[in-house]
Design goal:
heterodimer; A: alpha/beta; Rossmann fold; Dimethylsulfoxide Reductase, domain 2; 5-stranded parallel sheet; B: elongated; binds iron/sulfur cluster
Chain lengths: 479, 273
C-alpha cells in the first residue's frame, strides 16, 4: 500500500509536517504520528459531506449544476451594496488570494476568523511591536515556557511534545520524566485524599488549586513550564507550576509583573488574589532564565481588556528583554489562520477586517470587522468560505447573517451551509488538493494531496475563480 | 447661512459623507453642494440623492451652519476636518463625527457613535446623549490622539475614552467603560459618573478626574496624597479625591484623581500615605 510521508496536518495552528498516511484504493486507511484530532480528520473527513452544489428554491435547498450555483452566487455578490466575505483560515493561501481579488471586484468587506480570535493580538502588535521567533528555535533553546490563557494539551495536542517542554532539543533536554514523577505524585495524593474521605465518611473539598509556594523544580537548571489560566486545565496539570488568575484580571496581573521586572514597589499585598511575594519569585525565575517564551491564547485575547491585555503582555516581554532573552507568540488556532493574515497583509496592507467598498482597502476593526457589521445590520449579502459563523458568532450576528442572501463554499455540511441560499461544496485542502499554509510561527509549508476529490468538487481556489469570472462578466454586461 | 439636510430615507448600509463640512459648503452654491459625492456602501451617490437640501441665506457673510434634521446614525465622518462654522444634528450621528476637526462647533441632540472627535485638533463637540468607544482616539496603529479642542458628552461613553490623547479636554457627564485615558500622553479627562476600571492604563502624563465609583486601581499606580479639590479647565471640582500617580509600568507621571467619598474600597491605600 502506498505510504505518503511528510504530510502536513490541516487541523490546528501547530501544523505538524511529519504525518505519514497510508492509502488503499484512494482511501486513507492509516495515519501515523498525528494526534487524535489530526488522525480523526484524515480518517473521517469524508463522512459528513455533501458533494453537489445546492440552491435554495421555495425554501428548500435543491441540487443544481455547478454553473447555475456559480451564476447565482455571482449575481448575489455583484448586486450587493455592502457584501461581506468571511472565513478563509481553513483554506489555502492560493484560495485566499483569489478571495481578496473577488472582494475588491464586488466592493465588499473581507474578514477572516482572526476577527474572533487573535485580532486583538494583531492590534497590539501594531501598537507595541513583537519580539518573536520560529518554533524550531524554542525547541532547541527555550528553558522557561509560559502558556497564558491557552490549553495546548487539548487545543494543540502536539505543541508541547514537538516544540516546547517535552521536545528533545539540541541545548535543552525534554522534561517528560519530571512530568511522569509529578503525575504519579498527583495521582497518589488524589487517591490518598479519596481513601481518607471514604474511611472517615466525609466530603472535604479537594486541596486548593494554586500552590502559593513555588516548587523546587522551578529553581533547577532545566526546562520548566508555567501555565497561567483561570482554571486548572490539562496543560496546567502537567506544568511545573500553575498560576491561577481570577477571570478577567489578566491585565492587572501582567501590569504587576511588569512593575516587578522594572524593580518598582507595589502598593498592595495581593494582585488578583496572588501574594506579591509569589509574584516576586516568579519574576526572579523569568529574569533568571536563559531563553523564555510566553505563548498566549484566547484566554488573554478574548477576556475583558482584549488587545490591552496583549499590550501588557508584549510590553512585559519587552521589559524582560532588558534583563534576559524573552520571546512571545500567539497560539493560533486554525491551521492557516496565520497564512490568512499574511496573505491579507501582502495584498492589501492590512491583516483582517479589510473594507473595499470605496475601491481601495481600508481597515478599522470595530467598524469594518464582520461581527460588528452584522450586529449593526449593515451588510446586505455574504460569502462564507471554509468557516462556520452560524455556530460560532454571537446570536444577533448569526441571525443577521442568515437573514440576507448567503453563499457558502465549504467541503463540509455545517450549520452555516444548512442556512445558506447557495452552497458550493469544495474539495478538502491538504487532503484532496494541494496548497500552501503558514504555521503559527509564520513558516510557510505545503499542503499535500493524498487522495482524489469527488469529481463534482473543485478546490476553493477554482470555485472562487469561477465566481470571480462570472462577476466580471456581469459587470461588463451591465456597463 | 443655514443649510438644512433632511435624510430622504432611512439608511441601511454605511454612508460616508465627509463632505458635510461647513468650511466646504461656504465656498459652494446650492447646486454644487447637491452634487458633492458621498458613498452609500460601495455605490457613489451625490448628497442630493440621500438628502433633501434647503438653503436659507439671510446673510452670505455669516458663518455657515449645517442642520441635519433626522437620524443619521449610519452616516460617518460628518464634520470631518472642518475648521469653521457649526453643525447641529437633530438625532443620532454616526462614527468618526468631527474626525480631525480643526475648529468650529458640532452639536448632537441624540447619541454619537465610536471615534467621535478622533484626532481632533481644535473646536468643540457636544453630545447630549451617549457616545461609543474610542472618543478622541487616533486611527488603529497610530499614537497621535486628540491634539486639542473640547469634547463634552452629557450621557455615558464606552471604552478607551481619550486613548493616546495629547492635549485638550474631554468631559463625560455620565459613566465610562474601561480604560479611560489609556496610553494618554497629556490633556484632561473628567468623568462625573462611574468608571468600569483600569483608568489611566499605560498613561504617561495628563490628568483624569473620576467623581464616581471605580472598582479598583491598577497595581501599577501609587497613591500620592488626598486633595480636597481638583481643578479642571480652571474650574474647581469639590472632592476630596485620592490622587494616584502612574502608570509606573511605563515610567509614567500621570495624575489619577478618584473620589474618596464614593470609593470606600480604596481606603486600604491610605496606609501607604
Ligand atoms: S497537533 Fe494539530 S497539527 Fe499536529 S497533528 Fe494534532 S491537530 Fe494536527
Amino acid at each position: 500500500m502506498p505510504v505518503v510521508s511528510n504530510v502536513t496536518c490541516p487541523v490546528c495552528g501547530s501544523f505538524c509536517d511529519d504525518i505519514e498516511i497510508t492509502v488503499k484504493n484512494d482511501v486513507i486507511v492509516k495515519v501515523k504520528n498525528a494526534c487524535a484530532m489530526g488522525e480523526a480528520k484524515f480518517l473521517n473527513y469524508a463522512s459528513h459531506r455533501q458533494t453537489k452544489p445546492l440552491i435554495r428554491k421555495n425554501g428548500e435547498l435543491v441540487e443544481v449544476s455547478l454553473k447555475e450555483a456559480v451564476q447565482k452566487a455571482a449575481e448575489i455578490l455583484a448586486s450587493a451594496k455592502y457584501p461581506i466575505l468571511y472565513g478563509w483560515s481553513n483554506t489555502s493561501c492560493e484560495a485566499i488570494r483569489v478571495g481578496l481579488e473577488l472582494a475588491e471586484e464586488v466592493g465588499g468587506v473581507i474578514d477572516n476568523t482572526s476577527t474572533v480570535c487573535h485580532g486583538p493580538s494583531i492590534l497590539s502588535i501594531q501598537d507595541i511591536g513583537i519580539s518573536s521567533c520560529t518554533l524550531g528555535q524554542l525547541r532547541h533553546r527555550a528553558d522557561l515556557i509560559f502558556y497564558w490563557g491557552s490549553n495546548p494539551w487539548s487545543a494543540h495536542p502536539r505543541h508541547i511534545d514537538r516544540y516546547t517542554t517535552f521536545a528533545e532539543g539540541r541545548f535543552q533536554k525534554s522534561a517528560w520524566r519530571g512530568y511522569l514523577s509529578r503525575l504519579t505524585g498527583i495521582l497518589s495524593k488524589k487517591r490518598l485524599h479519596r481513601a481518607v474521605n471514604l474511611g472517615l465518611g466525609r466530603q472535604t473539598p479537594s486541596p486548593p488549586e494554586t500552590e502559593l509556594r513555588l516548587p523546587s523544580t522551578l529553581l533547577q537548571n532545566k526546562r520548566k513550564m508555567i501555565v497561567v489560566d483561570v482554571r486548572k486545565t490539562r496543560s496546567a496539570e502537567i506544568a511545573d507550576y500553575f498560576l491561577q488568575v481570577k477571570p478577567n484580571k489578566d491585565y492587572e496581573l501582567l501590569q504587576a509583573l511588569r512593575m516587578l521586572v522594572r524593580d518598582e514597589e507595589l502598593d498592595v499585598d495581593k494582585v488578583t488574589g496572588i501574594p506579591v511575594e509569589t509574584l516576586e519569585e516568579i519574576v526572579e525565575i523569568m529574569i533568571g532564565c536563559e531563553l523564555g517564551i510566553l505563548f498566549f491564547g484566547l484566554g488573554l485575547t478574548m477576556s475583558q481588556g482584549k488587545h490591552r491585555n496583549i499590550d501588557a503582555a508584549l510590553s512585559l516581554v519587552r521589559d524582560l528583554n532588558r534583563r534576559t532573552k524573552f520571546l512571545i507568540m500567539p497560539m493560533r488556532g486554525h491551521f492557516n489562520v496565520t497564512g490568512v493574515n499574511v496573505v491579507f497583509t501582502w495584498q492589501t496592507g492590512y491583516p483582517y477586517a479589510v473594507d473595499f467598498s470605496h475601491g481601495y482597502p481600508r481597515y478599522n476593526p470595530g467598524e469594518t470587522s464582520v461581527v460588528d457589521i452584522l450586529c449593526r445590520g449593515e451588510s446586505d449579502a455574504a460569502l462564507v468560505v471554509a468557516s462556520d459563523p452560524v455556530a460560532h458568532f454571537p446570536n444577533v450576528a448569526a441571525q443577521k447573517l442568515v437573514e440576507k442572501p448567503l453563499v457558502v463554499i465549504d467541503p463540509q455540511v455545517t450549520p452555516t451551509s444548512i442556512m445558506a441560499d447557495v452552497v458550493i461544496p469544495s474539495a478538502f485542502v491538504g487532503i484532496e488538493v494541494e496548497g500552501t499554509a503558514y504555521r503559527m510561527d509564520h513558516v510557510p509549508l505545503p499542503l499535500k494531496k493524498v487522495v482524489e476529490p469527488p469529481t463534482t468538487c473543485l478546490s476553493d481556489k477554482e470555485v472562487l475563480q469561477k465566481i470571480l469570472g462570472e462577476v466580471r462578466r456581469l459587470r461588463r454586461n451591465h456597463n | 447661512m443655514l443649510i438644512t439636510l433632511r435624510p430622504k430615507y432611512s439608511f441601511k448600509v454605511p454612508v460616508e459623507a465627509e463632505c458635510i463640512n461647513p468650511s466646504l459648503f461656504a465656498e459652494k452654491s446650492t447646486m454644487e453642494i447637491a452634487k458633492l459625492q458621498v458613498w452609500e456602501g460601495n455605490r457613489k451617490r451625490t448628497l442630493s440623492d440621500l438628502f433633501k437640501i434647503t438653503r436659507e441665506t439671510p446673510n452670505p457673510l455669516e458663518k455657515v451652519t449645517i442642520k441635519i434634521a433626522g437620524d443619521v446614525n449610519k452616516v460617518r465622518r460628518i464634520g470631518s476636518k472642518m475648521s469653521t462654522g457649526e453643525i447641529t444634528v437633530n438625532g443620532n450621528a454616526g462614527m468618526h463625527l468631527g474626525e480631525e476637526m480643526k475648529g468650529g462647533i458640532i452639536k448632537v441632540t441624540g447619541n454619537a457613535d465610536s471615534w467621535t472627535g478622533s484626532m481632533m485638533k481644535d473646536g468643540t463637540i457636544e453630545i447630549m446623549g451617549d457616545a461609543g468607544d474610542y472618543i478622541g482616539a487616533p486611527y488603529r496603529g497610530s499614537t497621535q490622539g486628540m491634539g486639542g479642542g473640547i469634547i463634552i458628552i452629557h450621557g455615558n461613553a464606552g471604552n478607551e475614552v481619550g486613548c493616546y490623547m495629547k492635549t485638550g479636554l474631554i468631559r463625560i457627564g455620565g459613566n465610562v467603560g474601561q480604560f479611560v485615558g489609556v496610553h494618554m500622553r497629556n490633556g484632561t479627562i473628567q468623568v462625573k459618573g462611574n468608571s468600569e476600571g483600569r483608568a489611566g492604563a499605560q498613561m504617561l502624563k495628563g490628568k483624569i478626574v473620576i467623581s464616581g465609583c471605580i472598582p479598583s486601581i491598577l497595581p501599577s499606580f501609587t497613591i500620592d496624597r488626598i486633595t480636597p479639590t481638583v481643578k479642571v479647565d480652571g474650574e474647581k471640582v469639590e472632592g476630596p479625591f485620592y490622587r494616584f500617580i502612574g502608570d509606573l509600568a511605563e515610567n509614567g507621571n500621570g495624575k489619577l484623581f478618584v473620589s474618596k467619598a464614593k470609593n470606600p474600597n480604596l481606603g486600604v491605600f491610605e496606609e501607604y500615605l
